[in-house]
Design goal:
Helices cover 64% and strands 2% of the residues. The chain has 450 residues and is mostly helical. It has three domains: 159 residues, no CATH class; 35 residues, no CATH class; 205 residues, no CATH class. Strands 1-2 form a two-stranded antiparallel sheet. The longest helix has 43 residues. It is globular, with a radius of gyration of 22 Å. The two termini are 43 Å apart. The N terminus is likely disordered.
Length: 450
């Protein structure tokens, strides 16, 4: 099997809690960067599949040509797909999954279209610097995003050529066509997720085909969530920081349409970041293909509020501080990025073998840690999470204090809004995070906080 390494995985977990379920230290047990693998195309038709932890060298694996040695190279943390006669399909495609996929498509399109309209407005008003930066923050992230998506398709295509199942060439062409010229990779993945979902529910399928489509549902759901997550931190979060910076630094001569378009674009970016974190968390849990891992609707709501209240103050303070202190804030952010990357490198991860891949991984996760916490190490995460939140909370308080002291907007509504909303979000984050782990986490009965 081709080993495709990337900081996000579609099926194998990388970080877990300890034996007593002690992964309550401020982070979910499957919330973090992983390594993606190609889709399986060879399926044993005798018994159903289920994901279990550990490799003992016995039992059938998902791919017939995988043994104990090479399985460890394609499924991180010794997690593999194995068959069990006890449960066939723990997470069938349901209406709520269809709704989530449709919402992901809507949020993605709204985010992109609103940003494009905003760039057009900057062009119409001949505001060239905001126009260039806004367009750059649209094009570059989506080129990177869809290039990643194409590379995944290429690896899947290369792997599929070795198997008995073959996808029509027209389908491969459409996947590539909509991914690069139109840059709609996440939309394509969500459409495929919906397609496989409906196919898996068909009553005319054989047991082997149903099992295949069920597995593809989990894979496409994970891929779509991964792409949306990447897009959120490459495009949505920086775009939001940029627009707040422009509002705070430039004179207001925008006209009535701009007063509608820019807030809409900012709302789209904000929703995109939070929703991507939730959909990624949900997809990772489903990729385990095991009962007891699924996030309930209430859990999704709590997780969304938690992550929104974690990311929002960070973005607001970074934007306001950049507007107030200019390059000094850029230097401070780069220092945070470097220190977090070094901190990740000190955690003795085993996700990558080559030093080049490790360095890229450290840089990527260090960048993500500018905005929110991501766990990348197995075992207890309590102290790592406490350290990260202590650092970011101190940074937030320092940024808020300095901005409120030096800003010239003390008599404007934004001043009161910031000094009220930012501390409130920080407090709400702590409360909701504790409630999430104690009340709605899938393993909350095994969680202790003291």
């Amino acid at each position: 099997m081709v080993s495709r390494k990337f900081p996000y995985d579609r099926r194998g977990k990388y970080e877990v809690g300890d034996e007593n379920g002690d992964n309550t230290e401020g982070q979910d047990d499957v919330d973090g960067p992983h390594c993606r693998q190609p889709k399986p195309n060879i399926i044993d038709t005798n018994i159903p599949l289920i994901l279990v932890d550990g490799i003992d060298g016995s039992g059938s694996t998902l791919d017939k040509d995988i043994n104990e040695d090479n399985l460890k190279s394609c499924c991180r943390n010794n997690s593999s797909f194995e068959y069990s006669s006890s449960e066939k399909y723990p997470f069938p495609f349901r209406g709520i999954d269809l709704l989530a996929a449709v919402l992901s498509i809507v949020f993605f399109l709204f985010d992109v279209i609103s940003d494009v309209v905003l760039a057009e407005e900057y062009y119409r008003f001949q505001r060239w610097i905001p126009f260039v930066f806004t367009v750059s923050f649209i094009l570059f992230p989506h080129l990177v995003l869809n290039a990643i998506n194409i590379s995944w398709y290429y690896n899947d295509y290369a792997e599929e050529k070795k198997s008995e199942k073959h996808t029509k060439k027209l389908v491969w062409f459409l996947r590539g066509f909509f991914s690069l010229p139109f840059m709609l990779g996440p939309v394509v993945r969500n459409v495929e997720f919906i397609y496989y979902g409906f196919k898996s529910k068909s009553g005319s399928l054989t047991e082997s085909d149903r099992r295949y489509f069920y597995k593809m549902v989990l894979c496409e759901n994970a891929d779509a969530a991964m792409l949306r997550m990447i897009e959120a931190f490459l495009e949505s979060a920086p775009q939001l920081v940029l627009q707040i910076y422009i509002i705070m630094t430039e004179a207001n001569h925008d006209g009535p349409l701009m007063e509608i378009v820019r807030p809409a674009a900012m709302i789209g970016s904000g929703i995109g970041v939070s929703w991507s974190l939730v959909s990624y968390q949900k997809a990772l849990r489903l990729s385990y293909n095991r009962k007891g891992r699924k996030l309930s609707l209430l859990g999704v709501i709590f997780y969304y509020v938690w992550k929104s209240c974690e990311v929002a103050p960070r973005i607001i303070l970074l934007s306001l501080s950049a507007a107030q202190f200019g390059y000094h804030m850029l230097v401070a952010t780069c220092i945070h990025w470097i220190l977090m990357s070094l901190w990740i490198g000190r955690q003795n991860q085993e996700m990558y073998d080559k030093m080049r891949d490790k360095i890229v991984h450290y840089i990527v996760i260090g960048y993500v840690l500018i905005f929110c916490f991501q766990n990348v190490q197995k075992g207890k995460t309590r102290y790592r999470a406490m350290f990260y939140y202590f650092v970011t909370f101190v940074e937030n308080i320092i940024m808020l204090t300095l901005w409120t002291y030096f800003t010239h907007h003390k008599r404007e509504w934004v001043y009161l809004a910031v000094i009220v909303s930012v501390p409130s979000c920080m407090v709400i984050q702590i409360i909701v995070q504790i409630l999430y782990y104690k009340c709605v986490h899938p393993e909350h009965t095994n969680i202790w906080l003291c």
